[in-house]
Write a structure and sequence with these properties.
Low-confidence stretches: 151-162
Helix content: 40-55%
Number of strands: 4
Strand content: 15-25%
GO molecular function: iron ion binding; iron-sulfur cluster binding
Family: Belongs to the NifU family.
Strand order of the largest sheet: 3-2-1-4
Number of helices: 5
InterPro entries: NIF_FeS_clus_asmbl_NifU_N
Pfam families: NifU_N
Mean pLDDT: 86
Order of helices and strands: HEEEHHHEH
Protein name: SUF system NifU family Fe-S cluster assembly protein
């Protein structure tokens, strides 16, 4: 498959996840929830998680944002559903490494989200792509089950502090 055809396929998958997001909405029962904002571009994401038997049994997101942030949230929810929090944390780290180009690994653990690897070529879009993943990390590691609000201010700063 020619590179341009592959790029076109990736664009189509991203657009499909953005226009028809999976797990978009709200949960009836929530164990962890968080709202994160990307003040650079105005993306706002609310994430709700329900755990059962130490697994993410349900996950939903809502909010507004660009195509990349919405597609990334949709792909992330697909990828982490039914995973343990520890498995999700590995995926969060792997996704972050992928979009900033830190390591060259097998990204298949990320499922559809692996196609967002190309975001590393557009530094301004890295915050958009990582917003949902940062929200998941913060929600899973919060001391409270209630909603918390935060901002992704500087991607470089947040990498070392989480």
């Amino acid at each position: 498959m020619a590179l341009s055809k592959l790029d076109n396929l990736y664009r189509q998958v991203i657009l499909d996840h953005s226009q028809h997001p999976h797990h978009h909405g709200h949960l009836d029962t929530v164990d962890h929830e968080i709202e994160l904002r990307n003040p650079t571009c105005g993306d706002v994401l609310q994430l709700e998680i329900a755990l059962e038997d130490n697994r993410i049994s349900q996950i939903a997101f809502s909010g507004e944002g660009c195509t990349i942030s919405q597609a990334s949230a949709s792909m992330m929810t697909d990828a982490v559903l039914h995973k343990t929090p520890a498995e999700a944390e590995v995926m969060i780290e792997r996704f972050s490494d992928m979009v900033i180009g830190d390591r060259d690994e097998d990204w298949t653990i990320l499922e559809d989200a692996a196609i967002l690897q190309g975001v590393q070529q557009f530094p301004a879009r890295i915050k958009c792509a990582t917003l949902a993943w940062k929200a998941l990390h913060k929600a899973l590691n919060s001391d409270t089950n209630s909603a918390t609000t935060g901002q992704i201010v500087n991607h470089a700063e947040t990498e070392g502090t989480d």
